[in-house]
Amino acid sequence: MADERFAFVVVSNRLPVDRVVAEDGSASWKQSPGGLVTALEPVMRQTEGAWVGWIGQPEIILEPFTHSGLRIVPLALSADEVEHFYEGFSNDTIWPLYHDVIVPATYHREWWDSYVAVNQRFADQAAAVADIGATVWVHDYQLQLVPRMLRLARPDLVIGFFNHIPFPAYGLYSQLPWRTQIIEGLLGADVVGLQRVSDAGNFSRAVRRLLGYTTRSPYIEVPRTDDLPARRVIARAFPISIDVEAFEELARSPAVQARADQIRAELGNPKTVMLGVDRLDYTKGIGHRLKAFSELLDEGRLNVADVTLVQVASPSRERVETYKHLRDEIELTVGRINGDFGTIGHQAVNYLHHGFPREEMAALYLASDVMLVTALRDGMNLVAKEYVAARHDEDGVLVLSEFAGAADELRSSLRINPHDIDGLKDAIMQAVDMPRAERRKRMRALRKRVRENDVGHWSRSFLRALSDASGGIDRLGADLDPLGDLEWTVERPPKP
Ligand code: G6P
After folding, report:
1. Rounded mean pLDDT of 178-194?
2. Nearest CA to ligand 1 atom 6
């Protein structure tokens, strides 16, 4: 491996494979679920690319290896780095700040030092495996300094960055003690991709305010500095998606359809099954959803004999204090609701604190009449898109927060403001009572939209922008989409 070089390198905090340790202590690898690896797989295979990332556990040093044709370059984090870089700066500073400070962001200088050091290691590793003139695609908020570090080390590279989470308004972003360094770090890329048009606007505004550079959407003119020549950077929205076809195929399989019927039967065949699926994160608005649901039960607008809410809350970042609190709060609320409204044989909330395989998720989507996505802030929310992709029967109602990136595209959902509990309650009732003809009409429109922009389209558009930005040379030789989709990502005012 020592001198193996790749024309295409993906860099993300987490690798697309999980390490599974069997009872006898032997370790093997399993591809993690999630669209990113599916999206990048065709390009990775065409170009024999490599993926640099962390395996998700501290202190494990591994040699590069190949997993189902994918070259994996693991990067080790020490226990101290997991605490300071991952749990600290990434998930207790940047994560809350970029999600509009739903919980306060914590600023610690030693966390920042660790963030700089770990970003440098990621950059060094990527520089070591990238071929001359290679394309390197860096992902997400954990690695915002990597683009500049990489450009300084390897000016020959074409560098892309995609932020999977929101980029906050300047009034919030300006809290960050290291706000200038982060912006400079990101501007090391040729293309900075963001989820929403508003995120791209927030990013460009931060660049103008902090560095005074000229921006003319989607371009940012970066002048010459002591260490780098003048460059033009592109910053624009590329809304991410899922592998729509694969998900629909899964939902059409007889086994999944049978499982969906079985789930409804196991729930006691209620008139209405409602569903929430989230990582257990304070950005998801799970508490707001439970509040609306319990008030509807309390007021008798919903009856526990007719309706049940299935809440899947997959464990996440469990050593971070705010996540521990959230879990306690949600579980207390669920216990109260079930205690107050449950009857023998009818549970108000079916709470599941674990993740499920894709097959089970597809069956749950098919079994649910109403999908509740009530995020207080969310980069995109792929669960909303999965629900739509699964509903090949053109049934089911999506209640979707306007604070999730998906709301820009999924305009035929029932869009809600999760802070407005009365509005949320009315939308839930509208969903429960919606006639079949309207459900079909809305779901058809949603499905059309989701099909138009699947994850393959997303990755090809990004790589196309990257190839255009670097002089139009299609270095990857991949089949890239033209950038004809600029128009539809522009947010239109909501219908009155
Ligand atoms: C979000 C982030 C990802 C992250 C994932 C899971 O989707 O955008 O970068 O990997 O959450 O979080 P974790 O901390 O477990 O990696």
Report:
1. 98
2. 316
